[in-house]
Specification:
Helices cover 46% and strands 18% of the residues. The protein is of the alpha+beta class. Helix 8 runs antiparallel to helix 9. The longest helix has 42 residues.
């Protein structure tokens, strides 16, 4: 009885230990389920989990069943071989028939379990297969709907790989069993296909060849994604050599499989050797040698003629893959004949020129508005709001709590988990307004937030979910939460939102204590039944946890709507199986921004909206997860007004269009008109320009709108040839426009403007002077701004003291036509760029000598009373026309005409100088 009691105790301890291990391992799964349920996304949790385990179970069962059946078929032959072993052997005495069966079964279970471990990652492939959609576009080779490749082809590939794995591993294991037991031996005088072991293995080999025949069929479809040849996708060699070769190899593979089976039936081993040898030889000749000969002797001597039809297909399907097939191309005159009055009449564009770049502005925000060391601004977002009945472009940034900035002594569990739980408010400033000290002028500032614009008033400023909220917190605890600083004291608050998981049972507390590895969760008296735990608070992690099958933009942006703070995150559906389309590393070759995600910064409510319900991948995911997605019409209008075209997608599209605007295969092949993304000087370095948002009135449009814009230059040249714009407002959302410039006229590119800035004596002298007096000049982004049919260039200059981290906006450079000027404000720079003195401000350098002559003639730093506008405008326009005529004569080699134009220009400049001198004298009187 004593011995029985010890056995019972041992079993009880073992069971309890297993339960404890299972509970610890299951704590993460259980708490994840609680979290998904709190988000209303439990169907996502169960669909992903069950599909993964169903796949693994199916693979395990199928692999085990097939392997075990084959091992059982080998048991008789193996048993007979083992009986031939010396009877005194210990293994021979131990290995009875029953034990052999058990050993084979256990071995099959283990091998199948190990092989099934990788199948769960294919859950998306399986779900997309059962939610297959049509695209409405057929491939040009097999004439199948592209939806076959995006939804069905990956599943068939998965089945083929799993089947081949089962067949090959089974054949290897069975062969090793036969060899190890002595049932299969090689040696002189031994005949093939004379033993059951040989029959068995020959049958498995036949199945492998028959299965490989299906693989050759799938390889044919795979040619649509061939990286060989002059372009991505099948070229001449693929269609005329590789495709026929695969068709022949498919037939040979079937024939080889049949020959092996016939050889087994007739016991003619030679037939097996003939079939296998034929397949190997055909694979070498047809799969390698023949395509190489076609490429070398047929394609390369006449590559353009051979590849032209396939280049055309490649261009067409690449444009389709990236949503560029509906780009509207228009001509942009790029004239230089605007007057000052015409420029300033474009109030919506000029009144929204972005002078504040996000990097200097982020540092300035940090110095002016972080308030305490634990607050942090991580990013500056650009958006537009209605202010006073006008569309205004603004920058805004969330004031988040960064617990990493707490002192080490303050990083206690109570502080990190219960007290410091949320950020507070945001700052908003117009992109073009500056104080007299070179600081941004705020629409929203301070703690609590103070707004000078009613539409930007923030009534719920607390940020529990953001880009820096990386740790879980417990709210509604007995310990009050730090809310915001009040002088030398602090204000406190208790969370009253709907977010989080209730900690209303001891079991939940134990589960979360195990998950977070924090015993305080279980023992702390501050946690009550009312307490709620908020986790996955970082919005980047949050959206990827809910919908890991989507791809997300790098930059979620903050929105103020209805007095609350929200984050909008752009989500993409992607595929790497769009025929002929050129892939972008990390993105595949099909990208659509079909989904917008909105996250409430206070409650954490995360809502997925489908922007394009006709897009096939979005339709498929909505079919798989019908409760997760909502139509765009369900988004509140206040939020919908702030949707914007995403930067990541636009960057990819502009990169693709820079090459694929060439739709003629000959031009494309010769790369005759490839565009490049231009570079600019930012700070002190030459960097590639990034797309930038701007409020402007597009040519021919009646009202201003929020546009994402990027210019293009020719490859290895710096002049501008085009600019691309993506629209974001209302019914025009998502439309892409490309404006191309006349080829018979030079339009300055960004680096050419940067070079002219560097070459201007006055500007370069001032920049060098500022850089030598304990300060650093930061050159901001150069903005190319289309105004009517012309281009205006604007670059802000920031000054930062060596001892300070607060850049100040000090100067604005404007370039138009032949003039490059620098002034204290944009308004002054615009006047000077059009030949007018800057009223009440220094007359700075103007390329072409206009401003310099005026400054020298006046002999004074300021011009309080400008000359009559009509005289200045008339003379400036004449000077500009004469200057352009001089340039035309110079390019034509007409030196006589060039000299005459220079003389006229000198006379006009002299008259302008006299006007400036008279105006200066009048002001001194």
């Amino acid at each position: 009885m004593h011995r029985l009691g010890r056995w019972i105790l041992a079993w009880v301890v073992a069971i309890l230990a297993l339960l404890a291990i299972a509970f610890v391992a299951g704590a993460g799964l259980y708490t994840d389920w609680l979290w998904y349920r709190a988000q209303g996304a439990q169907d996502v949790f169960w669909t992903m989990l069950l599909t993964q385990w169903e796949l693994r179970l199916a693979m395990w069962v199928l692999f085990f069943g097939f392997l075990w059946i084959n091992l059982l078929l080998s048991r008789g032959e193996v048993g007979r071989a083992l009986t031939a072993l010396p009877p005194e052997g210990a293994f021979a005495q131990w290995l009875t028939a029953r034990r052999l069966t058990v050993l084979m079964g256990v071995g099959a279970l283990v091998i199948a379990f190990l092989a099934s471990g990788t199948t769960s990652v294919y859950w998306e492939v399986v779900q997309r297969f059962f939610a297959s959609q049509t695209v409405g576009v057929r491939d040009p080779v097999f004439h199948l709907d592209v939806g076959y490749y995006m939804f069905r082809y990956p599943f068939y590939r998965y089945l083929y790989q799993m089947g081949m794995t089962i067949l090959v591993v089974t054949a290897i294991v069975v062969a090793l069993v036969y060899i190890g037991s002595g049932a299969l031996r090689w040696g002189p005088g031994r005949q093939w296909l004379r033993s059951p072991a040989q029959f068995h293995l020959a049958f498995l080999v036949a199945l492998i060849f028959l299965w490989r025949a299906w693989g050759y069929r799938l390889d044919m479809y795979g040619l649509l994604f061939s990286p060989r040849g002059v372009v991505f996708g099948p070229g001449y060699t693929d269609i005329h050599a590789n495709l026929p070769a695969l068709q022949v190899l498919q037939v040979i593979a079937v024939g080889t499989g049949v020959l092996v089976l016939v050889a087994v039936a007739l016991r003619r081993a030679r037939l097996t050797l003939v079939g296998v040898g034929l397949l190997i030889a055909a694979s070498l000749v047809l799969g390698q040698i023949y395509p190489g000969l076609v490429q070398r002797f047929s394609v390369e001597p006449n590559e353009l003629a051979r590849e032209a039809p396939y280049i055309s297909q490649h261009i067409r399907y690449t444009l389709l893959g990236y949503g560029l097939d509906k780009v509207q191309e228009k001509t942009f005159p790029a004239r230089e004949d605007l007057t000052y009055d015409e420029i300033i009449s474009e109030k919506d564009t000029i009144g929204n020129v972005r002078l504040w770049d996000w990097k200097p502005l982020l540092a300035t925000y940090a110095q002016l508005q972080e308030m305490r060391l634990y607050y942090d601004f991580t990013d500056v977002d650009v958006d537009r709001y209605e202010v006073g009945g006008q569309l205004r472009q603004v920058t805004l940034s969330a004031r988040e709590l960064n617990v990493d900035h707490l002192t080490n002594t303050a990083k206690t569990w109570v502080n990190l988990a219960l007290k410091y739980t949320h950020g507070y408010g945001a700052v908003v400033s117009p992109v073009n307004e500056v104080t007299g000290e070179g600081m941004p002028r705020f629409f929203v500032r301070d703690i609590p937030p103070v707004s000078t614009v009613p539409a930007l008033a923030i009534r719920q400023p607390r940020i529990y979910f953001g880009e820096l909220t990386n740790t879980p917190v417990f709210v509604r605890a007995r310990t009050p939460e730090f809310d915001y600083p009040v002088g030398e004291d602090n204000a406190y608050n208790t969370y009253d939102g709907s977010g989080g998981i209730p900690m209303d049972s001891l079991f939940k507390r134990l589960a979360f204590a195990l998950r977070f590895r924090q015993i305080q969760v279980l023992l702390a008296s501050d946690i009550s039944d009312r307490t709620r735990v908020l986790m996955y608070r970082n919005i980047h992690e949050r959206v990827r946890k809910i919908a890991p099958f989507l791809r997300y933009d790098r930059d979620p942006y903050l929105v103020i709507a209805g007095g609350r703070l929200y984050w909008i995150q752009d989500a993409y559906v992607t595929s790497s199986l769009f025929p002929y389309s050129m892939p972008v590393p990390g993105w595949g070759n099909y990208v659509r921004n079909s989904i917008k995600v909105v996250i409430d910064a206070y409650n954490g409510t995360t809502t997925y909206y489908i922007v394009d319900p006709k897009e096939p991948l979005a339709r498929a995911w909505a079919q798989i997860f019908p409760r997760l997605f909502k139509p765009l019409e369900a988004m509140p209008p206040a939020l919908r007004a702030h949707l914007r075209y995403p930067e990541d997608l636009f960057a990819i599209q502009s990169h693709i269009y820079a090459t694929y605007h060439m739709k003629d295969p000959t031009v494309f092949y010769n790369k005759e008109d490839v565009w490049s993304i231009p570079t600019e000087i930012f700070g002190t370095e030459q960097v590639a320009m990034e797309p930038y948002y701007i409020v402007m009135r597009l040519p021919g449009e009646p009202k201003p709108e929020f546009v994402l814009l990027l210019p293009f230059t020719p490859t290895r040249k710096n002049n501008m040839v085009a600019w691309m714009a993506a629209r974001s407002d209302g019914a025009n959302y998502g439309k892409l426009l490309v404006y191309t410039f006349p080829k018979d006229r030079l339009s300055y590119g960004p680096m050419q403007i940067e070079a002219r800035i560097n070459q201007d004596p006055y500007i370069s002298q001032r920049l060098s002077l500022w850089d030598q007096k304990g300060s650093r000049v930061i050159r901001g982004n150069l903005l190319v701004i289309p105004v009517r049919d012309s281009l205006l260039y604007v670059e802000p200059l920031f000054l930062q003291a060596d001892q300070s981290q607060m850049p100040e906006l000090k100067q604005v450079i404007v370039a138009y036509g032949g003039n490059v000027v620098m002034a204290d404000t944009l308004a002054q720079a615009l006047r000077q760029a059009f030949g007018l003195p800057a009223a009440g401000a220094a007359v700075t350098g103007v390329t072409g000598g206009v401003g310099q002559a005026g400054a020298q003639a006046a002999g004074a730093a300021t011009v309080p009373v400008p000359a009559p506008a009509d005289n200045w405008v008339q003379l400036s326009q004449q000077a500009d026309q004469v200057f352009r005529r001089a340039q035309d004569r110079l390019r034509a080699g007409d030196w006589s005409g060039y000299g005459q134009a220079q003389s006229e220009l000198g006379a006009l400049l002299k008259r302008l100088a006299e006007l400036a001198s008279k105006s200066g004298a009048g002001s001194q009187r």
